[in-house]
């Protein structure tokens, strides 16, 4: 006995020959399955010869990870010439100009996370102020970094190995970290979006310069 696929019934056939009818010229599929590709949902539908349509799953959002110190804030035990934005313990924290605007811009386009090589208590306090109301996949501190000795400086370097974040369902190709310290992203340099270190200047404009590369990333 021949097995008859239930999908065969969906294929329009010629009344005279019984063969599958050909697509209407100028369309990507037969009239019964062709839809104008105007919206995002329609763009996810691919039509192939043979009349079967396959719905493609939309690409998951990219994960954008923010470093904190010298990327979004500058913390110091000594006051600068202008007042700090908030305090964490003995530290005066200066928020980088446009930090909140960049976070809101990014939150609309990416899944967000934070990874700092500072202490867990410090990260929690800064995140509470800076990312208020913004959902994060995680907020990691130095405990998640890999500690290594830098032979050149003979000091410790705290490496952020992004493979640890793959457990949240993102491949390395769909992760980007904004960080002022390239040595901390040395294991995945292709995932690194570099930014100049922020030392508290009120006229710093490094963050608005990230909008264009972030927009380009969203399309990758
Ligand atoms: Mg940093």
TrEMBL record:
Domain FCP1 homology residues, every copy: 57-217
Annotated GO MF terms: hydrolase activity
Membrane-spanning intervals of the chain: none
InterPro entries: FCP1_dom (IPR004274), HAD-like_sf (IPR036412), HAD_sf (IPR023214), TIM50 (IPR050365)
Pfam families to which the protein is assigned, alphabetical: NIF
Region (Disordered): 1-31
Assigned keywords, A-Z: Hydrolase
Keyword field contains Hydrolase: yes
Record has Cell membrane as a keyword: no
Protein name in UniProt: HAD family hydrolase
Organism name: Massilia rubra
Lineage: Bacteria, Pseudomonadati, Pseudomonadota, Betaproteobacteria, Burkholderiales
């Amino acid at each position: 006995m021949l097995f008859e696929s239930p999908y065969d019934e969906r294929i329009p056939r010629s009344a005279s020959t019984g063969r599958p009818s050909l697509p209407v010229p100028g369309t990507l599929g037969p009239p019964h399955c062709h839809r104008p590709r105007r919206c995002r949902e329609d763009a996810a539908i691919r039509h192939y010869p043979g009349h079967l349509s396959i719905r493609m799953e939309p690409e998951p959002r990219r994960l954008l990870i923010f470093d904190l110190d010298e990327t979004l804030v500058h913390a110091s035990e000594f006051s600068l010439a202008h007042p700090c934005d908030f305090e964490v313990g003995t530290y005066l924290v200066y928020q980088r100009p446009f930090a909140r605007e960049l976070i809101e811009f990014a939150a609309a386009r990416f899944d967000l996370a934070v990874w700092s090589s500072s202490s867990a208590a410090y990260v929690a306090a800064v995140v509470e102020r800076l990312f208020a109301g913004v959902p994060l996949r995680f907020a990691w501190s130095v405990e998640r970094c890999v500690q290594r000795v830098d032979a050149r400086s003979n000091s410790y370097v705290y490496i952020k190995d992004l493979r640890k974040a793959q457990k949240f369902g993102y491949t390395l190709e769909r992760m980007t970290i904004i960080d002022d310290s390239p040595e901390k992203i040395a294991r995945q340099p292709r995932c690194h979006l570099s930014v100049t270190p922020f030392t508290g200047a009120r006229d710093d404009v490094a963050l608005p310069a990230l909008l264009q590369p972030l927009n380009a990333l969203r399309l990758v």
